């Protein structure tokens, strides 16, 4: 390795790449070369830093300066000022919204203060395309430790004792799953990594694969060693081209370093990994559907048992774990079960990665210890609600999770608490809603997703969700009746109770949790014909306030359907029978004379 | 054998480990309703995708309801099949299915025979609480099968039959969610696919989504046309099942009543396909002996084993999937087509009826026979040898239309000459029957000796693949039998690799043979019905005075007067066919 004096870490996550971080990197490289500095200063594309709201991010080492919202036009200044002259470019530093002071190191930012990074430990710190950097950061030492010092039983015991539970949504104890698969006797077994991340807005697994692919490879090899498998498969959606490319590079490097393949590190243990591509069906994240998809069959779930640990890929015992679960394995082996189990709550150990999204100031990827409250995540890390609006609800667990109210803000996040609150951990999507969000529409939105993604195999999910959606549509169109609310609840319970797989069993959660927590909004829709958030167009009425209207005729001229009439310089009138509620008059009126009733 | 203790509806019971809740409940008289589930016991055919969710039951300690069809019993399990939670869920699930199903029961081909309709009645559905958009698909009509997927409930039985049992691989679920439907690939028409028209999808469809092409109207029109002479032939398996359509117990032989009913319907001559089955044995048996003797004489080029060719779905199957083997099956046409060919030549001449004025109707246990009769090679100048092929169910339909009280009909005989048949021909209707009939004749022709024993038990049964060696007076003849195209595929793969040990193989597409054909009264998953039909077929064989095809006096006469010898030039022209590469 060349001995560089300085490293420019440019975020190479998908979000920052979309914001031209590739060009930032190229600019840096060219400008350094022009100054003859290319052998002294290295530019690295890292994985996601997590603070996506402030991307693209450039971090400078060794002094840890953290530049935010960098554009390709800023690179020259960073080179000339920071790199050459050693002067921090203050205008590119993060400004604390509360103190208005500028912060140059990420560890001092509220966004990062409460985070504990285990699964994301290398994301944003190492070059994911260079195995040496991973190795330099303790990489592959856990695999080495397993092969050198531990028996499979001992390694499994560490995982069991750590209390690690599956991060894909189910929360099944990982060590126990490994132990079960180990105990099934068969000459051929498989390790499968579920990288079919499908929750809308979630990118935990993608970021890990993009930022630290070797951790997944190492963990899969450890799993193979533990359960007695010599073959691993990563099932990844084809829509993740960058993750796929980095994974491929990592696999190639791992083979070159003898960390995959025959007789790894001279231990006699052989293991290799293949990539299988998914076509983006959400249901293929369900493990039996995932396995069918890998077998070239229709991606639809089958009844369990038999569990994959008994009869999985090609009928052989198969251990399926999610990307984030695997990313926790090497640190647990390295640092021990005791270390890991001190983090988190009684029944949920360690940390959890969340993709923060919605009406929140700091959108991004975070990792917090289990037991952190929703309030800490939303307000301390997330920086509160955008535009000073009021918090209304937070949706956890992806499309099958529930919407929680402010009453749950102090709930410590773990598997059991979220379940008890009527939501779930899921794979880690977290979407924040404010007072402008209509909760009936939100329930409808999530149901639209499950409706699209249902495989159609079982009746309740195929037809039941369709009917639920139709009732919600009826309500948001202003045609709902109080009886519909009873129907929604009854049908939701039957769908949960009778669906074949986890998708159907959880699909009514957004409906049930909004019924439980926001009944007043539903009732306003069906009893008063009103949408309190003003989102359901069919329930809106635009009216003109006679007092405010000056008769300027702007609304009259803009109305596309001729619903507005009135004499010049006297108050105008909207014919409700003609109004299509496009809102053009509302936006155009200069005198705030048009009101939403 | 590990045993499991559990209670179902508070009744304690002990069952074998691995038993499903459904089977366990059934053993103590608790009949949990099912819709998608179907189990043809002993044939190893089971459909349990766990998709309909009608069979859900409450299991103490379980978070959600358990589908009884695919949940195995466990020690100490407490099952409640009719708790309010289970019943409410079951009814709601059924209401959901009904909410996406056309409410045209009164005019549906399956009305009165529909498992969905029965279930709605059974569960006392009086209102569908959840209404909404319904699925719509275009109707797909082929020469034999009509698909009306608006009526599909996604039980996946057809898919299982097509893929797992028949290994034809035409039907599978496509699209997702509410738009999911069972279809040929890319929603192509069935007649563009490699569908064999075996009709097993129709046989197991619980609703009216898959039905046969209805030719009853055309037959009724022909019968009422005074310028036409309309004759009918009835396949052997029909007589063992037709009674079921009129409430008679499965396995009731109704040969005489059927002949009487056909006569009352106005058919000018009531003949029997069995006659043509005897003719088939003459041709196919002679062909077998010819190939066998060449082989014994050291001819290396001779094609063995010889495969039967009576089953049109089987013929289409090898044309699609094993075109390289198309010179192995016997070239003999099926009995239906031999009958049509002889009827429109020999019989038409005898009666001095012009070909175009003679209408040949066949009554078949099969939907593929509709397709077979429409094949170009079985027509002369566009006039088909067999004009219409009705299924057993369609015959029952026109008997009803004619106000005939079937149960009280007297027994009547078939007309001559094409109504005379032997016991050998009637067993064509069951798996093993064609080859047994062939053995009876081939043995005597080969050895010149009289068979002492006519019942070849070793060739009978319901096993999907069977084999037996028959001693032809010192010469061991190895015989293979397959029913179900998946089983046939296994034998064909052996032939392909040269590993086949057989001299002759009988293949029938449908499980059980023609008694289980796609045109038979619906068995609704009750394999016992097929056994009873099989038994009836063998009892008709027993009751016949003549039980060997070559002893049928009218067949002898047919050769004397018209055909000459088996495999003569005329016989080749009228009774044999060729096969095509459809791969």
Automatic annotation (TrEMBL), chain A:
Keywords: 4Fe-4S, Iron, Iron-sulfur, Metal-binding
InterPro entries xrefs: 4Fe4S_Fe-S-bd, 4Fe4S_Fe_S_CS, NADH-UbQ_OxRdtase_51kDa_CS, Nuo51_FMN-bd, Nuo51_FMN-bd_sf, Nuop51_4Fe4S-bd, Nuop51_4Fe4S-bd_sf, Soluble_ligand-bd
Alphabetical list of SUPFAM superfamilies matching this protein: 4Fe-4S ferredoxins, Nqo1 FMN-binding domain-like, Nqo1 middle domain-like, Nqo1C-terminal domain-like, Thioredoxin-like
Sequence ranges assigned to domain 4Fe-4S ferredoxin-type in this UniProt record: 540-569, 570-597
Classification via Gene3D superfamilies: 3.10.20.600, 3.30.70.20, 6.10.250.1450, Glutaredoxin, NADH-ubiquinone oxidoreductase 51kDa subunit, NADH-ubiquinone oxidoreductase 51kDa subunit, iron-sulphur binding domain
Superkingdom of the source species: Bacteria
MF term (GO), any: 4 iron, 4 sulfur cluster binding
CDD domains tied to this protein: TRX_Fd_family
PANTHER family hit by this protein: NADH-QUINONE OXIDOREDUCTASE SUBUNIT F
Record family assignment: Belongs to the complex I 51 kDa subunit family.
Name this polypeptide is given: NADH dehydrogenase
From TrEMBL, chain B:
GO molecular function, one term: ferredoxin hydrogenase activity
Domain 2Fe-2S ferredoxin-type, residue spans: 2-85
Classification via InterPro entries: 2Fe-2S_ferredoxin-like_sf, 2Fe-2S_ferredoxin-type, 4Fe4S_Fe-S-bd, 4Fe4S_Fe_S_CS, Cytosolic_Fe-S_CAF, Fe_hydrogenase, Fe_hydrogenase_lsu_C, Fe_hydrogenase_ssu
Keywords of this entry: 2Fe-2S, 4Fe-4S, Iron, Iron-sulfur, Metal-binding, Oxidoreductase, Repeat, Ubiquinone
Species this chain originates from: Sunxiuqinia dokdonensis
Residues of the 4Fe-4S ferredoxin-type domain: 186-215
Pfam families linked: Fe_hyd_lg_C, Fe_hyd_SSU, Fer2_4, Fer4_Nqo3, NADH-G_4Fe-4S_3
Annotated ranges, domain 4Fe-4S His(Cys)3-ligated-type: 85-124
UniProt-recorded name of the protein: NADH:ubiquinone oxidoreductase
UniProt cross-references to SUPFAM superfamilies, sorted A to Z: 2Fe-2S ferredoxin-like, 4Fe-4S ferredoxins, Fe-only hydrogenase
SMART domains from the UniProt entry: Fe_hyd_SSU (SM00902), NADH-G_4Fe-4S_3 (SM00929)
Enzyme class: oxidoreductase
Enzyme Commission number(s): 1.12.7.2
Keyword Protein biosynthesis applies: no
Keyword Amino-acid biosynthesis among UniProt keywords: no
């Amino acid at each position: 390795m060349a001995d560089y004096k300085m490293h420019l870490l440019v975020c190479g996550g998908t979000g920052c790449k979309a914001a031209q971080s590739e060009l930032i990197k190229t600019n840096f490289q060219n400008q350094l070369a022009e100054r003859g500095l290319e052998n002294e200063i290295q530019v690295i594309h890292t994985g996601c830093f997590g603070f996506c709201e402030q991307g693209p991010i450039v971090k400078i080492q060794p002094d840890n300066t953290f530049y935010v919202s960098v554009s390709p036009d800023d690179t020259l200044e960073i080179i000339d000022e920071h790199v050459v002259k050693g002067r921090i470019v203050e205008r590119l530093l993060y400004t604390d919204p509360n103190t208005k002071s500028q912060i140059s190191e990420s560890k001092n930012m509220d966004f990062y203060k409460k985070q504990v990074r285990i699964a994301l430990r290398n994301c944003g710190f190492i070059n994911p395309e260079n195995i040496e950097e991973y190795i330099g950061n303790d990489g592959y030492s856990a695999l080495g430790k397993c092969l050198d010092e531990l028996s499979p039983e001992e390694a499994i015991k560490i995982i069991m004792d750590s209390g690690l539970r599956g991060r894909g949504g189910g929360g099944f104890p990982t060590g126990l799953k490994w132990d079960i698969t180990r105990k099934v006797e068969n000459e051929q077994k498989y390790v499968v990594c579920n990288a079919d991340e499908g929750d809308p807005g979630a990118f935990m697994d993608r970021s890990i694969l993009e930022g630290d692919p070797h951790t997944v490879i190492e963990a899969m090899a450890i799993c193979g060693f533990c359960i007695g498998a010599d073959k691993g498969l990563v099932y990844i959606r084809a829509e993740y081209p960058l993750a796929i490319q980095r994974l491929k590079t990592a696999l190639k490097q791992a083979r070159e370093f003898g960390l995959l393949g025959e007789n790894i590190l001279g231990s006699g243990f052989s293991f290799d990994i293949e990539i299988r591509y998914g076509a983006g069906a959400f249901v293929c994240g369900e493990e039996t559907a995932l396995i069918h998809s890998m077998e070239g069959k229709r991606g639809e779930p089958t009844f369990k048992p038999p569990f994959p640990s008994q009869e999985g890929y090609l009928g052989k015992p198969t251990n399926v774990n999610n990307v984030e679960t695997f990313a926790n394995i090497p640190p647990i082996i390295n640092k021990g079960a005791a270390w890991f189990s001190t983090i988190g709550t009684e029944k949920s150990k360690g940390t959890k990665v969340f993709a923060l999204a919605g009406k929140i100031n700091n959108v991004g990827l975070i990792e917090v210890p289990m037991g952190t409250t929703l309030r800490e995540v939303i307000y301390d890390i997330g920086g509160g609600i955008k535009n000073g609006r009021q918090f209304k609800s937070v949706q956890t667990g992806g499309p099958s999770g529930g919407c929680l109210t402010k009453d749950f803000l102090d709930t410590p996040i773990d598997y059991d608490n979220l379940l008890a609150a009527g939501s779930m951990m899921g794979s880690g999507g977290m979407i924040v809603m404010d007072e402008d969000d209509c909760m009936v529409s939100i329930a409808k939105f999530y149901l639209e997703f499950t409706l699209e993604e249902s495989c159609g195999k079982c009746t309740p999910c195929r037809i039941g969700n369709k009917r639920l959606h139709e009732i919600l549509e009826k309500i948001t169109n202003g045609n709902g009746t109080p009886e519909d609310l009873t129907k929604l609840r009854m049908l939701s319970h039957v769908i949960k109770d009778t669906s074949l797989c986890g998708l159907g069993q959880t699909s009514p959660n957004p409906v049930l949790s909004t019924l439980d927590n926001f009944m007043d909004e539903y009732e306003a829709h069906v009893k008063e014909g009103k949408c309190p958030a003003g989102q359901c167009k069919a329930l809106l009425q635009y009216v003109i306030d006679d007092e405010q209207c000056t008769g300027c005729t702007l609304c009259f001229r803009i109305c596309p359907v001729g619903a507005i009439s009135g004499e010049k310089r006297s108050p105008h009138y909207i014919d409700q029978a003609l109004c299509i509620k496009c809102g053009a008059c509302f936006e155009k009126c200069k005198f705030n004379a048009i009101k939403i009733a | 054998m590990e045993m499991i203790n559990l209670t179902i509806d508070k009744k304690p019971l002990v069952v074998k480990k691995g038993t499903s809740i459904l089977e366990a409940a059934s053993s103590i008289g608790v009949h949990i309703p099912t819709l998608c589930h179907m189990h043809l016991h002993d044939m190893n055919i089971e459909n349990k995708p766990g998709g309909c969710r009608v069979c859900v039951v409450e299991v103490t300690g379980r978070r959600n309801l358990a589908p009884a069809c695919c949940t195995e019993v466990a020690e100490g399990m407490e099952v409640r099949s009719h708790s309010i939670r289970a019943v409410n869920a079951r009814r709601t699930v059924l209401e959901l299915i009904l909410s996406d199903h056309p409410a045209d029961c009164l005019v549906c081909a399956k009305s009165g025979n529909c498992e969905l309709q029965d279930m709605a009645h059974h569960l006392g559905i009086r209102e569908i609480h959840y209404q909404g958009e319904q699925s719509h698909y275009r109707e797909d009509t082929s020469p034999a099968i009509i698909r009306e997927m608006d009526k599909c409930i996604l039980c996946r039985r057809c898919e299982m039959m097509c893929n797992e049992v028949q290994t034809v691989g035409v039907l599978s679920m496509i699209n997702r969610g509410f738009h999911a439907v069972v279809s040929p690939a890319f929603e192509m028409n069935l007649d563009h696919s490699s569908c064999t028209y075996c009709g097993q999808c129709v046989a197991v469809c619980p609703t009216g989504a898959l039905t046969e092409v209805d030719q009853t109207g055309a037959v009724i029109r022909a019968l009422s046309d005074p310028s036409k002479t309309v004759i009918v032939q009835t396949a052997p398996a029909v007589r063992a099942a037709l009674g079921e359509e009129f409430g008679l117990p499965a396995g009731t032989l109704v040969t005489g009543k059927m002949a009487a009913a056909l006569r009352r319907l106005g058919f000018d001559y009531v003949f029997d396909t069995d006659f043509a089955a005897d003719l088939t044995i003459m041709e196919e048996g002679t062909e077998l002996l010819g190939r066998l003797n060449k082989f014994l004489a050291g001819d290396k080029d001779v094609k063995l084993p010889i495969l039967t060719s009576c089953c049109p779905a089987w013929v289409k199957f090898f044309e699609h999937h094993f075109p390289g083997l198309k010179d192995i099956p016997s070239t003999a046409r099926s009995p239906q087509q031999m009958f049509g060919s002889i009827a429109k030549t020999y019989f038409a001449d005898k009666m001095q009826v012009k070909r175009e004025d003679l209408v040949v109707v066949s009554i078949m246990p099969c939907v593929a026979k509709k397709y077979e009769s429409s094949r170009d090679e079985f027509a002369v100048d566009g006039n088909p040898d067999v004009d219409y092929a009705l299924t057993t169910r369609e015959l029952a339909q026109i008997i009803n239309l004619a106000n005939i009280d079937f149960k009280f009909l007297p027994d009547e005989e078939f007309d001559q000459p094409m109504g005379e048949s032997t016991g050998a021909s009637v067993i064509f209707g069951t798996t093993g029957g064609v080859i047994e009939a062939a053995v009876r004749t081939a043995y005597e022709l080969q050895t010149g000796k009289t068979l002492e024993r006519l019942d070849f038990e070793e060739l009978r049964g319901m096993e999907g693949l069977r084999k037996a060696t028959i001693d032809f007076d010192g010469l061991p003849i190895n015989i293979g039998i397959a029913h179900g195209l998946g089983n046939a595929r296994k034998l064909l793969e052996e032939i392909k690799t040269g590993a086949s040990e057989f001299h002759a193989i009988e293949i029938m597409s449908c499980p059980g043979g023609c008694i289980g054909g796609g045109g038979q009264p619906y068995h609704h998953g009750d394999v016992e019905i097929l056994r009873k039909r099989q038994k009836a077929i063998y009892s008709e064989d027993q009751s016949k005075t003549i039980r060997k095809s070559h002893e049928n006096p009218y067949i002898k006469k047919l050769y004397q007067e018209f055909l000459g010898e088996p495999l003569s030039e005329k016989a080749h022209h009228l009774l044999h066919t060729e096969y095509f590469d459809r791969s």
